[in-house]
Amino acid sequence: MKKIDKLVLASFLGPFILTFLVVVFILLNIHMLKYFDDIIGKDLGWDVIGQLLFYFAIFNTPVALPLAVLLSSLIAFGNLGEHFELTAIKSLGISLVRSLGPIFAFVLLVTVGAFIVGNYLVPKAALEAYSLLYDIKQKKPALDLRQGAFYNSIPDISIKVDEKLPEDGVLKGITIYDHRGRTGNKEVTKADSGRMYTFMNDQYLKLELFNGNNYIEGTGSGTDISSGQGSEETFRKTEFARTQIVFDLSSFGLNRTDKKWFQSNRIMRNMQQLRYDMDSVKTEIKTQQISIYTTSNQVFNYHLKKDSIVWPAEIKALKQKRDSVNIVKYKAEGLNKPMVNANSGSRPENVLISNQVRLLSDSLYNKPFTHNEISVATNQVRIVKSQLFNANEQIKSHKDRFIEFEVQWHKILANSIACIAMFLIGAPLGSIIKKGGLGVPVLVSILFFIVFYVLSLMGEKWAKQSILTVGQGMWLANTVLMVIGLLFLNQARADARLFDADFYNVVFDKLKRRFTKAE
Prior knowledge:
Layout (H helix, E strand, L loop, with lengths): L2 H31 L2 H4 L6 H37 L2 H7 L4 H4 L1 H38 L11 E2 L5 E9 L4 E9 L8 E13 L4 E15 L4 E2 L4 E2 L3 E15 L22 H23 L1 H5 L13 H20 L15 H19 L4 H63 L6 H25 L5 H5 L1 H18 L7 H18 L1
Antiparallel strand pairs: 1-2, 2-3, 3-4, 4-5, 5-8, 6-7
């Protein structure tokens, strides 16, 4: 590697690492703000918070890499242009395209890394992050008694405290309703003061109460059969100077759910799994279509019986495959289909019966339809219509699922190739602007990232609405940005001054002279 290549590459690596960390931090904060209300007040340990941040940082990496490439290439070539280092490189006979070579090679490695992260690490990180987030949402808030308000997070227990003294942890005016007997508010404990603390790794809560009473209201032991009247209710009051009550806090812990319940989500699948899911959905669609094509033979016993419906080749192939599998299954289980005696149709009595049936059928079909027959036929048509409607709705639902899986499949590739598209914009544009630092490059990066984000959302929406194919929709943003990048590259090779006022003044003067001559 030549010294100039090392100089250009070194000017890119530093800003790239810095901007990547900054972008990941910003995206991570934006992502975590969505779930701030679900996390706050749950008394989570730093290990749980650290896991959540780590998984979401990996989840945002495929989005952060293209933006980091764009911003760092703008800064690198802006600095080289601002300090006339690009001019010195060109004076040595090295073209702009040749000077982009080392950074472009590094961006190709970044693209491969982005694909590996997006295809292998992101699905696993998404599975870990969202399963952990679900468990956090299910976790009860931390034990926090407020003055003058009932606390009901402990199962079947309601606690109210009139006053809390934070300096010594003393509680004043304690009222406890115990509903564990499922009999209403029939067991109440009141105390003048007390203390509260947990033990055994916060699995149990102990309330130490002073100077109070325990009230229990209940019914008698049974009913007086002779009189037919129920016995009177009982009431018991117990006074205490000091007592202790222990509550189980196991429901406050963070209980982890089995991850298998989250694995079917498309963002938690890699490209191979998504391809398998798409094949499975295709098979479900074809199976549903087979049931629709066979409906006519099962429902229309006479009308349209001779009509032939042409089956699509792929559906016919699946039907034949399923039938062959069933035949093999029957043979393996030693089952045989009932055989029909070929000579039975030639017997005289069978010929006589068939002639009688034909004569009877001709006489039946020549008779006018009765009201009952029309009602039965109408109900049968309604049933068939409802079955076809439900089948079409299921097919539409399967197709929507197929599009979602296909969108995610293309998104993994598109987010990786976006690194190259962003580089084709950032490097030429930086050499044109000739401004380094974090001023102009940051503004330009934000502008083009917004364009990329909006085009990505529009393409995904149009793909799901079938306005565009999934491939066209998911590659719309990359295609547009690559075209813009190639235009910038062409202008940078010609040393165009797109951001100088003199450039536009010259263009305006040329247009003005042309229109003046035309008049």
